[in-house]
Amino acid sequence: MSDTDLTSLGIDQSAAEGLARANVRTVQELLRADPDQVAMASGIPIERLQDWQRRARRAGAGAPPRPGSPAAKAWLIGAVLILIALLLGWALMAIGAGRVRKAEQIRTAAESKLSVAVSFVASEAIAQVRDARLAINKNNWGSAQITLSQVGEKVAFMRQVAPDNQVAAIDQISEELSTLQKSASEQSKDTVQQLDALETSLDALQQPQQ
Questions:
Q1: Fewest CB atoms less than 10 Å from the CB: which of 70, 136, 157, 160?
Q2: CA count, 13 A, side-chain hemisphere, 161
Q3: What's the rounded Cα separation, in Å, for the pair 118 and 207?
Q4: Regions of the chain where pLDDT drops below 70
Q5: What is the pTM of this model?
Q6: SS3 annotation, the chain
Q7: Tell me, what's the pLDDT at 2?
């Protein structure tokens, strides 16, 4: 999907002009927008705005990346380097029996560092879960949904780099998040309770596995 073409969401010219009055001219701006504010500025019903946002997410437009802090960039670079170290460890295991012990030591060290990376990402995801809860408390469901999609990006990253002993827990978190996002899209009264459960599950990942 084009990041700029609103017509790809089935938005006609008249509706696009209304969105422009609310400073929404691209798909990414639509995803970032607060449906309540856009509805007031454009005269477009909030239900239509929320439907367009859901269409954009289903089509793979995704939420816009948040500006990366130095710490966030550091853990991302570190995780890549750790993955390289892990691959090297596995390669050593294939070279010969005399290097098996060394390869195992490298693998163990790499998995320990990956666990630390998972812990760091989990703490950032918890902060975003709290942001989503605050948005819901203010009845800003659109903002909460966008924030939860960013939590989804972090859960997907953790799933890619997690050691074997954390994969099951992260898969469970992914299922909880999927249920939570559905509740948020329906503005269900169960959403806050599900947010609390997700935060508890993420908090368990903040302690690096030994």
A1: 70
A2: 28
A3: 9
A4: 1-4, 59-81, 83, 85-111, 207-210
A5: 0.52
A6: CCCCCHHHHCCCHHHHHHHHHCCCCCHHHHHHCCHHHHHHHHCCCHHHHHHHHHHHHHCCCCCCCCCCCHHHHHHHHHHHHHHHHHHHHHHHHHHCHHHHHHHHHHHHHHHHHHHHHHHHHHHHHHHHHHHHHHHHHCCCHHHHHHHHHHHHHHHHHHHHHCCHHHHHHHHHHHHHHHHHHHHHHCCCCCHHHHHHHHHHHHHHCCCCCC
A7: 46
Domains, the chain, ranges and CATH?
A: 6-58 (1.10.150.20), 70-204 (no CATH)
